Every structure is written in C-alpha cells, then in structure tokens.
Amino acid sequence: MSPTRREFIVGLGAVTGVRLLAPIVVRAGAGLGEALADPATANRNRLIVIFLQGGNDGLNTVIPIGDVRGAPRYSVYRSVRPTIAYKPEPTLGLDRRGDADQHLGLNPKLTNLHRMYKQNRVAIVQGVDYPNHSYSHFTSTDIWQSGQPERTPDSGWLGRHLDRAGIGEGELRGLGLGYELPLALRGGHARGVELQDIPNTHFADGSVRAAEARHDALARYGHHPLSEPLRHFAGKQAEITVGLVRTLQHMNAPPQLENYLAYTLLTARSLMERDFGVECVFINHGYGSYDTHTTQVPAQEALLTELDQAIEAFYFGTIAGKPIGVGPISRKLAARTILLTTSEFGRRIGENGAGANGTDHGAAGPLFIVGPPATSRVSRYRLVPGLHGEHPKMGTTIAPADNLDMTTDVRSVYQSVLQDWLGNPDPSYERKHAPVHGLFV
Amino acid sequence: MADGGTLWPDGTGGGRLGAGKATRQDIARLFGRAAFGATAADLDKWTGQPYADVVSYLVDVPAPDARLPAFDDAERLTLDRVDDFGQANSRLEEAQEWWLDRMRITAYPLEERMTLFWHNHFATGLNDKGTGVGAMVAQNQTLRRNALGNFRQFCAEITLDPAMLFWLDGAFNSGYAPNENYAREFFELFTLGKYPQIYTEHDIRQSARALSGWTCDPITRVPLFDSGSHASGNKKVLHRTITDQQDKEYLEIVDVALAQTVSPLFIAYKLVLNFAYVPESRNLLKSPGPLIGKIARTLRRTKWNLREGVRTMLLADEFRYASESRGRQIVRQPIELVVHASKALNMSARDANAVALLTRMGQTPFMPPNVGGWPFGKDWLSPATFLARYDWGLLAYQLYNQGVLQDALPAPGDLKAWRARFGLATLSHNTEAAIQSYVHSRRGAPVEELQTGVLALIVSSPDWMVM
C-alpha cells in the first residue's frame, strides 16, 4: 500500500481498535478529524456525470432547424410535433465551423451551454444508445449505468473502473451525491461513497466528547462478523460514515440555492478542490421529471434551465449572470474536469396526441460533454468540441420514422472517457467498442 | 433449485408449514419483518404459542369495511377532501404523520405493513398533474381495503384510481395517439415483471389503446369514460384478442395479464423481496426457488387471494429459518425502523422533525422517488441515510423525554433490558461489545446522556437495521 493508503487510527481508535482506510484519513489525538490530502488526486483527471432521470427528449434539446441534403429532418420534426416543436428562430444555433451545415440549434434555455460551446468547450455526441433498446425506465437506466446491454447488469461502468483502480473500502474516489448509491458507482467489489451534502454529513450530537464516544462505538460496528453478510455490510457503512463525518467536519459548504442541482454540483466542486481523492462523481437530476408524457415544453424547459444554470454555477459561480457567493472554479480543477450528461433514453420522434402535448419513451439521444477551457493544456488528451457522431435518421414527411436509432454506441463514449480521460480503459470494451473517433485527441 | 435440500434447525427437512411453538427469535423476526417490529409485550405474549397461531393473529383480520372505524379514521376522512392545490404542504405533513402513527397504533399491524408494501408496489406520488394529498389519502385507503384481498379486484381498482390516473397519465390517454405510460408500468412493475419479460412493445401499444378514453377531474376525483377519445376496434394483447368493449376493456387487460404463468410468480417475488430476502433468481419461470414457488402456487390455487399468499410466505420454513439456514436477511425500510422505535418507546411518531429525518433516510410517505418505488437491500445502507438513522435515535430520546413518561428506560448498561424493550431476541456479540465499551468509556456521565447514547446506538446497529 502506498503511504496515503496506510491504515490510520480513527479518533480514540487506540482504545477501541478501530481502523479506517485512507484517504478518508483521520489523525488520532489533538488533530482529531483533520483530513489529509491524497497527493495523487491533484494530478488526476476528474469526471462528473449528470443523469437526467426520466428520459430527456433529445429532439427538443438539440433541435433540427433546417433540412440537410437527403435528410428532411426539420420538415419531419415540424410535421410530427404539431404542438411541441420549436421554430428555428429562438434556438441557439450550433454554428461552429464544421457544425453549421448540420442545421441544429440548442434549446433556447441552454444559454450557458451555448456560450461555452462558442468558447470551444462543449462536445455533443449524437444518437447515443445501445443495441436492442429497452423502453423501460428501469431496464434502460440499468443499462446506461452499467454499460452492459448484453447481459443482466451486475456492476456500474464507473464501479468497474474503481475495481481496476484497486480502491479500498470507504475510499472517496467515487462519489454519489444523493441518498442512494447509483448502480454506475457499484463495482464488483469496490463501491463509491454516497453523501447527501456537506452540512448533512454531520451527526446531530456534534463532536463534543460525549458524542465522540458514541461515534467510536458506531465505528466498531464495522467489525460485525462476515457470517452475517448484510449485517457486516451495515456495520461497515457505520464505520465509513464516522470516518466521513470526521474528515468533513471543518469544511465549508456552498450556499443553499433554490437550484438544487447547482448546489449539488458546487458540493462536488468543494470536495474535489480539497484533494480527498474524489475522481468520479455521479449526480441524478430531475427525479424522473424528464419523463414528459404530458405538457412537455414547459416541464422540459424548467429542467433544462436548471441544468444549464447549474453548469454555469459550477464553472463561473454565477446563476443567470448573478454572483452566488462562491466565485469561479479554480483553474487547476477546471483544467482536470469534464462533465458528462446522460439519460436513460430519448423520446419518440412524434408527439403523443391531442391534449397531451408530450412524448412517449424513445431510443437514442444526444449527450453533452463540457470540458476545460480551450487554452488549457494540462491533461494529456484534449476534448474536441462540437458535434460528434451521426444524427439519427428521421425518415420523410410521408413516412416519418417512429424512433431515433443508435448511431453511436454508449460503450464507445464510455471507453473514450475511461481510456482517454481517466486513463483506465475497460478491457471488456477493448475490441468491439473503441473510443469515439476524434472525441479526445 | 436455488435453496433446496436444507436441514432446518428443527432437525427436519422442512415442509411442515408453521409447525411447532414460536421461539422468541421467531416472534422478533416475524414481527420485525411483517408488523413494524415486536414490542416487549409481543415477545412475552407470543413466545411459546403455536407458530401458526401467531401467523393467524397477524393475517386473519377483518376487512376494513367490515369493522368499526378506528378512532383515527375520522382524521383520515378529513384529510381525504377536495384538494386545494395551492397550499398542500401542511396537509401533506399531517397526512404523513397520520399514517406513520397509524402504523404504530393499529390493531392490525400486518394489514398496515401490507398497505406500505402496496404503496411501494403501485408506487404513486404527489404531482402537479392532479394527484393532491386528498387523492393520495383516498388511494391509501384503497390500498388498505385491498391489502389482503383479491389481487384481480385490486388491479381493476388501482387502474381507475384517481391518484394513479394522473400520476401515470391514464387520464391523458387519447385513442388518437395513445399514451403508453400506464400500460408499460402495469406490465413491468405491477403484474408481470421482467424476470423474464414476456410482453413486447406491441403489447404495450395495444394495451394503451385498450386503456384509452379515461379522464378524471382533480376536484371531483370521479373517473369518467369518454368513448369519443377511446381507440375503437380490436386490440391484440399477449396473444388474446380484446374486442371493442369501450369502458370494460381495462378489465380485459387486467385479466390477460393475471392469466400469465409468470404473474403470480412475480407477485410472490415482490413479497419475498420485501419481507424475507433478495431472491437470486433472474428467471422465475425456470427456477423460482421454493419460497416464491410456494407463494405463487397458493395465489394461483386461490385465484389471487392475497391473504392466503401472505400466510403461505409467513408459515414457510424458507421464511422462518432463512437466516439460520442460508444467512439470508432483509434490510428493513426506514419507515419500519422509525415506527418500530416509536412502538418501543411507546410514543407518538407525530413530529415534523421525524418526517424530515425520514426524508433524509430516503423514504418519504406519499412521495416515492418514482413509479419503481423505493430501493431495497444494501441500497438503504449508505452514509447519507445512516447519519439520519443515528440522528433519529437522538431525536427519539428527546421526544420520549418530552412526553408523559409511562415507564423509565432501562439503566444504560442493562443491555438485556434494552434488547427486550426494542423487541430483539438477541444482540450480536459485536454490537453488545461496542455499546458496552461506550457505556464504560463514559462511566460517571449523567444517565440521560448515556441513555441517549445507548438508544442512538441500538437504532443504528446492524441488528436493528437488518433482520
């Protein structure tokens, strides 16, 4: 084990014999609760995944605003979406050189993403899906999070990365922010750690001596015998929790914001800036509200506004241009971080009928990758901004397609991120799912 | 077979349904999993009684419509009134507290536990499409009335339940362009599952047509059928042709789903998942495992009598001895833990902070995360939720001290008394050693401080969370 992964004594561990694995490291005695940095973190690339829960409508996110030769996308789009199609004029044109002839525009609510696109910081991968698409939220979520469409999912694509990285129990390399650890961060044996936020990573009885004695006892639950596997697991979680509380107790939290995603992203930012070892972060957004079977336009616009402003807050410390008291992201972290949006599926090409003004579950959709400032040259590989992959076919106005079919396999996107960004390719993808050509160079 | 050939602790090969006298461990586990936990009185009363009698006490309860109203039914009726969509929040809290306390005081704890099970199965949540607090409280009574009733009748009622009609867009499903939301979840989550998936996208689209035409007014909450927006013509669903019968077609959809072989297996799977352990089987048709197989056979034989299905599960050796024979246990849901602690302390769970802590534990009544319901198993056990469980112990002690003290809590070091008080038959060696070391390290501290600590440590212990 490297020095940063040595076993440290927690709290009054000298008495209770409780140990935790670093880098959730806590010094005994006077420095109780003081966290140590994991020096390796600073030189690691980082990843934040935002999962848009419910199935985001891709066609109203990256919107056809004109027909292209051989593909009357705009005509089809307008004809099968009589009440929910956008006109070209309010959309935010994807008009970088090389993209403009695709005649696509971003949803009018994605103003910050569009600005970052203009600054050469946003890649858009089109038509991402997996073979034999499932229209079930639950099956499809499991497949997106596992990257295992051809078997019963048993581990997350980032969980397997943690397995290969060989992390210890309770190590903060994979971080989920919410209540429930997502499948994406569950490996064969390694697991990410799930936190709600910084202020709530705190026991209500604080850190007075009387409370510390209780927390020491809690940490001892980590010794529950393996003969009762679930109770052993519960005990380990107790032990890990005590370590986290002691590590984070002196950290400042970001301000509470009405935009909860912004708050969560800023929480991730604070934790990443402290070099606790955090490398991959997974955040759910929308709690299923992207499932716009009815009254789609206002519902999706509200969600995309929240998403767009949360990304703005993460990078620039502003929301709609107004400062929120946190300042911009550090240059060092910005140079090392990419942010990836995913969702369990896109939606149907056509809307679902009079009065409903919504769409049913569909197949492929676009995803966004936001990267470092274009001038940044810290990382070995660089994210190539602009459109990637083919736009899926939409048929003709006479015979419109029902669904958008896959043009990029999600496993290729994952392999790009794993191999070129995190430096840890998934061997099970190696032959069949090469990285997306030209996404990172 | 996943778990055949076991020699059970009673020395038999199993199979004698519910034989013998109930041990303290039997009572602790049975009540812990199926009745919001045992009290000390439950342990004393039922230990030594025939096990089958204990199961019968839990299962054989009069139907809600056939008994005198409980005193808290009046409050339920005031909550089940026209929704005022502007100011739902205080009513939501009142409804949540009402239900939590009913779980604690009910004379029919298994029925209430099943009501929670169905809330998770037919998971419906407040939304701005028309499901307000009143609609949720009304649905809650529908879940209770059917909790141990006939599943076919249940499915028919839930399909036209107003809260559900808004939640899964049944009220917005026009035959011109059918909305598939309800049809898909009806098969995947409510009746057939996907172990294996036997229905196709075609079946879903055709079912959506059969279910089209229903609307509902969020104020009156009366489902109405508009034949003008119903998709006319035949529909072919799961190899059966459903002829045009207008507002009766939804009954055909229920019927064709429940006629599938996998359907009783899937409901049995859900019961085992929620009351016993996480089943290993990924193919219920090929290898359901003996417990799921037994429950499904009962459901089929009794034409979907849920009471008998639950009885079969609770009597089965695979349920009763799961942890001894296989190390199989279940992670209890946060609501169960909170209600059980309130029972042990004999105090009301009616406290806004308690509901807020439940939200931090990940389980807010009337607000499941999505139609798939709440997580299960290990997914309940993260640092995020663990902190809230410990904090609940601290809060519970405060609430207990604010109440009218009926009986003092045990001395801090008397773990045998604490164990009995919290309805546990045993405390594992490691848990006991951890708590004793705490009490020892703080000897001389005020008794309230130590009792707070022991209480918080018990409700955070592996023994309490996992049964």
Would you kindly provide a written description of the structure presented here, covering whatever features stand out?
- The complex is a heterodimer of chains A (441) and B (467).
- Chain A contains eleven helices and 16 strands.
- By secondary structure, chain A is α/β, with parallel strands linked by helices.
- In chain A, helix 6 (209-220) runs antiparallel to helix 7 and helix 8 (260-273) runs parallel beside helix 9 (296-316).
- In chain B, helix 6 (109-121) crosses helix 7 and helix 18 packs parallel to helix 20.
- The interface between A and B is large, with 67 and 69 residues.
List keywords for this structure.
heterodimer; A: 441 residues; alpha/beta; nine-stranded mixed β-sheet; three-stranded antiparallel β-sheet; 11 helices; 28% helix; B: 467 residues; mainly alpha; two-stranded antiparallel ribbon; two-stranded antiparallel sheet
Report helical residue fraction of chain B: 40-55%
Q: Largest contact between protein chains?
A: A-B, 67 and 69 residues
Number of strands of chain A: 16
Average pLDDT number of chain A:
89
Please give the share of residues in helix of chain A.
25-40%
Report the portion of residues of chain B in β strands.
under 5%
Largest sheet of chain B: 2 strands, antiparallel
> If strands are numbered along the chain, what order do they take across the biggest sheet of chain B?
1-2
Query: Beta-strand percentage of chain A?
Result: 5-15%
Radius of gyration of chain B: 23 Å
Largest sheet of chain A: 9 strands, mixed
What is the overall pLDDT average of chain B?
92
User: What's the total count of β strands of chain B?
Assistant: 4
Structural class by secondary-structure content of chain B = mainly alpha
